[in-house]
Please model this.
Amino acid sequence: MISTKNLYKSFGKLEVLKGINLEVKKGEVVVIIGPSGSGKSTFLRCLNYLESPDAGIISLNNMQVDTQEVKQKEILALRRGTAMVFQGYNLFKNKTALENVIEALLIVKKMPKDKAIQLGESLLDMVGLKDKRDQYPSTLSGGQQQRVAIARAMAVNPHVILFDEPTSALDPELVGEVLGVIRKLAEENMTMIIVTHEMSFARDVADRVIFMDEGIIVEEGLPSEIFSNPKEERTKRFLRQIINR
Model:
């Protein structure tokens, strides 16, 4: 489905990704955990070229992209095949919930407006917000805004959704409603890569957990393996710090 081979990324002299190799299968939910600054978010942003990798191969379905010889049409294809959900929602403040969801359908996919509205309404219904279709982001709670962002990501029918700490900007009482929507997508076999600090959610929803630190994948395995019996000392130390907070 989507994979990387020897993916590297630096910002100036700071090497953030040091040869990431990862393969995610269709319908798989992979959760990436690790300390702040370990490269998790940069990795996601490289997958759909919000950041340009310095070297490595990104494959999506039958397309293989050499990041050192990448063409604009390949970047566009990666972006069309992936959808990103950000920690800060990134909704258009001057557009309603429905308008945010259907924007890409109208502009990118050139879908007729009546069909776009019909699809947008069904997606808002899926995330429990059909009654908020005409409200602007400023009138919605953080959890509601994030659910609109998830509906917007689903609208383009991506091969994979990339979640960059989707609950980190939310008040604790709003976290559950967003995680509930993601859990529903997992049950429907949506391919997802999720960066999160919600360890109980990672244990519950992930098919596989990746622990990243200092720009490398230190350890990966089933949630039961990573959380109950991690092999690497760095993983053990991180989990102890998280649990003892």
Remarks:
- Residues 172-187 form the longest helix (16 residues).
- The chain is about 40% helix and 25% strand.
- The two ends are 36 Å apart (CA to CA).
- The mean pLDDT is 94.
